[in-house]
Every structure is written in C-alpha cells, then in structure tokens.
Amino acid sequence: MQKVKESVKGLKAYNANQVPFRIKLDANEGKNILFKDISEGLSFGEDFNINFYPDNDAVLLRKEMGGYIGISPSNIIAGNGSSEMIELVIKTFVDKDEAMMSFVPSFSMYSVFSSIYSADFIGVESNEDFSLDMDLMIKKAGEINPKLILICNPNNPTGFLIAKKDIEKLLSEVDSIVVVDEAYMEFAEGSMAQEVLKYKNLIVLRTLSKALGLAAIRLGYMISNEEIINIINNVRSPYNLNAVTQYIGAMALRKKDEITGYVEEVKKERDFLSGELGELPFEVYKSHANFIFFSSGIDDLDKRLKEDGILIRSFSGDLKGYYRVTVGSRAENTELIKSLKEIVKNEKS
C-alpha cells in the first residue's frame, strides 16, 4: 500500500508461539504466586494463567468481535480503547509534517495525537448548527491531499450523524486513508463496518466503552481490509491487550440481547431528556449518541450543577457556553432536570 510510511515498510509483525504446551518456559514469565485462585474467583476457567503473557493475537476476542459486527476476525485488530487504535493508524501512515484532516469540533484526541507525531492537523469547520458538510470536506481534501481523514460518526461532542451515502462519497473521491470512528454507532444507524471490503482506504473504529458499558477495561477495535490490517499489525506492540480485558470483552460480546435492550433504553431516555432540556432556556441539538449537546447563557452552569453533586461536561474557547450531558437512567435524568430548573429559577429571581 503506497500510503504506508517509509519507516514502517520494512517492519515485520511480532509473532508469539501459539501452540499447546505441557510446560511453558519460552517467554521468561514468572510464577503465579499472588493470585493462585484468580481463575476460580473470576470464573475465567482453568486455562486462564495470569503468569503467562496474554494471547498476542486475541484470537477468542476477535472471533467474538467478528460475530458481533458480522465480519471475519482476520479483518479486526483489538487494543486498549479507540485511542490506541487512532494512535496506531497515525503511527503507521502519517509522517512528520504530513496532513491530517477532521471536522471541528470533534474528538479532541485527533488533534492531540497529531501534535504528538508532529503531523499537520487541519480542521474543517462545522456549520453554525453543528451539522457537517461533506462536500466541503471533499473540496478541502482535494486542495490539501491529506494522508489521513478522521470522521467521528456520530460526532463527539455534538451528536450529529453523517449519512452513510456521504461517507461513501468521501471514500470514492479522495485518495486518503479514511478512518470512521463509530464509538457511538450502536445508538444510531449507518455503520460502515460492512463496507471495509469494498473500499481499499477505509478503517472503522469501534469500542466497548459506550453501548457495552465497559469503559474501565479499555477495549476498542479496528475493522479494515486484510492488507491494512496486516500492515498495522506490523506496527502494533506485542501483547498490547491484557488477558483480563480479552476475556471480559469476549464474554460481553456474547450478550447481544442485553446490549440491544440497553441501547433501546438509552434511546428512550435520550428522547425524554432532550424534550425536558428543550423546555428550558437552552439551545438543544439533536443527538444520535448516548449524550446531548446544548448551549446555555447561564454562566458556569456546570459548576452550579457540581455544587448539587451533578457532573456534566463543559467546553471552553469557541465552545464556551456549550455543554454535553450523558444520557442517564430515568432517575438520574429527572434529578438533573430538577436541579437545572432550580438554577434557571434562581437566575430569573
């Protein structure tokens, strides 16, 4: 693939021995002296050994991911959250001073990783209502020819959803690697995961932090064609994903009914919370994620909520006065609205 950095082209993937054994003495692993009962206590099974390095290829986990997403495990790499996946893509394809593009505002780590790797980050401004103009992105990409384009869909922090046909148009009209970050896609429609075999320049990112509620285990994955997957595997660090995370992730992905039920609950509560916020003197934006983005003229709204024990996300700079609130349970959402109504009442008095 021509987009690969010259410094990466000669790399070979780290290959660990994945063979049955009676005695394992090949990797300088210590003895399990601290947590001898871990397999029993956490129901990991007798084959789980905390003193051995984890499965370098995350075979069981990728199999479950493939079943969950409807794609072959050979098209998947797993890692420590979407952040590691983003960093891996940049490490593989973007050299110093080469251009990366994304809409702004969007996930802040895109520009952070760009700075870390001395790339040139170029943001394409959203419209006044925070909708995203794909034709503008295509036009700018034609002028700049970036190595990488990152699309967060649904977008964080605004919740805006780009239509699938618009992403397909982007893929067809640019020569860049296009990364579609679908961290919140379970709460929306229009995933590009099934299209990775159709487009040679497409990478899709997913996470277990949102719809599966497993943020603490730090588990994300990328989906792409086998050529890109093989190249990125050459850059990936050995044993990048610990065994506990692999096991919990694999078990969680089997619980599709529970995941679907939770997603539907969030969508219902999202409608409720959005409607309640809309009754207050706020500007509320339609969301396709598990959060709602809104603006308020009340100063330090987040700090006033914090005094009542409620935390929401505030922004600064060009987004000063804008807030993002995660959709909670009905009880949590009701308490939030109650507190907000009290703040609005005090503001008027």
From TrEMBL:
<comment type="subunit">
    <text>Homodimer.</text>
</comment>
<dbReference type="InterPro" id="IPR001917">
    <property type="entry name" value="Aminotrans_II_pyridoxalP_BS"/>
</dbReference>
<dbReference type="InterPro" id="IPR015422">
    <property type="entry name" value="PyrdxlP-dep_Trfase_small"/>
</dbReference>
<keyword id="KW-0663">Pyridoxal phosphate</keyword>
<dbReference type="GO" id="GO:0004400">
    <property type="term" value="F:histidinol-phosphate transaminase activity"/>
</dbReference>
<keyword id="KW-0808">Transferase</keyword>
<keyword id="KW-0032">Aminotransferase</keyword>
<dbReference type="InterPro" id="IPR005861">
    <property type="entry name" value="HisP_aminotrans"/>
</dbReference>
<feature type="domain" description="Aminotransferase class I/classII large">
    <location>
        <begin position="44"/>
        <end position="340"/>
    </location>
</feature>
<feature type="modified residue" description="N6-(pyridoxal phosphate)lysine">
    <location>
        <position position="210"/>
    </location>
</feature>
<comment type="pathway">
    <text>Amino-acid biosynthesis; L-histidine biosynthesis; L-histidine from 5-phospho-alpha-D-ribose 1-diphosphate: step 7/9.</text>
</comment>
<keyword id="KW-0028">Amino-acid biosynthesis</keyword>
<dbReference type="InterPro" id="IPR015421">
    <property type="entry name" value="PyrdxlP-dep_Trfase_major"/>
</dbReference>
<comment type="similarity">
    <text>Belongs to the class-II pyridoxal-phosphate-dependent aminotransferase family. Histidinol-phosphate aminotransferase subfamily.</text>
</comment>
<dbReference type="InterPro" id="IPR015424">
    <property type="entry name" value="PyrdxlP-dep_Trfase"/>
</dbReference>
<protein>
    <recommendedName>
        <fullName>Histidinol-phosphate aminotransferase</fullName>
        <ecNumber>2.6.1.9</ecNumber>
    </recommendedName>
</protein>
<dbReference type="Pfam" id="PF00155">
    <property type="entry name" value="Aminotran_1_2"/>
</dbReference>
<keyword id="KW-0368">Histidine biosynthesis</keyword>
<dbReference type="InterPro" id="IPR004839">
    <property type="entry name" value="Aminotransferase_I/II_large"/>
</dbReference>
